[in-house]
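Checklist before submission:
- one chain only
- standard amino acids only
- sequence pasted in full

Submission:
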Amino acid sequence: MTSTIMSISAGDLADAVHGPQAPLVLDVRRPEDFSGEGGHIDGASLFPAERFRERLPELRGLEPRRFVVVSEDGDGALEAARIMMAAGFVQVSVLAGGMRAWRAEQLPVHR
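Returned file contents:
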């Protein structure tokens, strides 16, 4: 059985990160993109795609918290979400459209 990876819109994620059950936002971009001009979502944790699998055990103690995976355009986030779900994580979503969608909505970024 294949699980469907859910997506969340930029606006809904902006509301969720300040809510009582805020998800853990995992940014899979490169460190220079995370810290660079385009910035990142406040409170996001940097989990670069190239080291994602090896860092996955760090997330085990955080379940059943919901995770939202973020990349620049959403594609890298989908791959990371697939890895998480194959490893047994259940509450995994991706930011639809990635950071491009977040910035297009003119939502706040941290640099």
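Reviewer check: Residues 38 and 100 are 9 Å apart (CA to CA).
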